[in-house]
Amino acid sequence: MNHNSDKYFFEYLIKNILLHYKIVEGNFIKSECPDFISQNIGLEIMRADETVKFNGFINKYPKEKIRNIKKFNKHFEENGGRVLKKTDIVVKLLNLVDTFYYHENYVYIIPSYKDDFTFINKKIKNKIDKLNTIYDFHVKTYYLGILTSIYATEKMIQEELVVLTEMCKKNSKHFDKIIIIFLDKICIFDLLYNKYIIIDNVNEEINKLSCKTKIN
């Protein structure tokens, strides 16, 4: 997939997941700002995965295409990775192994990502700002559907409900529901009633929906 087809695939997949579990209902048509609309619901979609940017960068640079290694190293670090000289003492002390082999003089370390809501909440804030500035449609209710690869405990979800509630209070327009699709469960944050609902054991169904999803 190219960037656009990959983006649209995940938009349709998330929409299909929400329809499958009856989290939303109705006939949704593709739009922009928000991504889908039905008669009563504006549905915005996002994929919150820190690895996407880094993986996209890596896919652009197979080893044979790198002409300027210093420039490449700079971009590697700008995208979250770390570049060490093989002569650096830390490489020997930690017995670091290079899995990329971009250059014989360097060791390339991929970014480390945390299982918390920091990155997701940054993206949610951007979506709320967008909702309050440039959304084109005036519908009764706005929902935000998110697909992420992090693992969240219920304690983390309880704490996230507090964070999302505070984020919504600061804006005149907000999402009535924010639905986060994890790898193993779906969490529906109902911000009108300050509560959440968890749907467990969704992995198998999501895999099936992924195989069936087509970009209309």
Provide an overview of this structure.
With 216 residues, this protein is of the alpha+beta class. It folds into two domains: 3-50 and 115-212; 52-109, no CATH class. Helix content is 38%, strand content 21%. The protein contains seven helices and nine strands. The protein has helices spanning 3-20, 51-60, 69-78, 89-93, 118-131, 154-169, 203-212; strands at 29-30, 36-37, 41-48, 82-85, 106-109, 141-148, 177-181, 185-190, 195-200. The strands form two sheets. It has a seven-stranded mixed beta sheet with strand order 1-2-3-6-7-8-9, with helices on both faces. Strands 4-5 form a two-stranded antiparallel ribbon. A hairpin with a 3-residue loop joins strand 2 (36-37) and strand 3. The mean pLDDT is 89.
Q: N-to-C terminal Cα separation, in Å?
A: 15 Å
Count structural domains.
Answer: 2
Order of helices and strands: HEEEHHEHEHEHEEEH
Show unreliable segments: none
What is the compact description of this entry?
With 216 residues, this protein is of the alpha+beta class. It has seven helices and nine strands. The model has no long low-confidence stretch (mean pLDDT 89).
Sequence-ordered SSE layout with sheet pairings:
Blueprint: H1 3-20, E1 29-30, E2 36-37, E3 41-48, H2 51-60, H3 69-78, E4 82-85, H4 89-93, E5 106-109, H5 118-131, E6 141-148, H6 154-169, E7 177-181, E8 185-190, E9 195-200, H7 203-212
Parallel strand pairs: 3-6, 6-7
Antiparallel strand pairs: 1-2, 2-3, 4-5, 7-8, 8-9
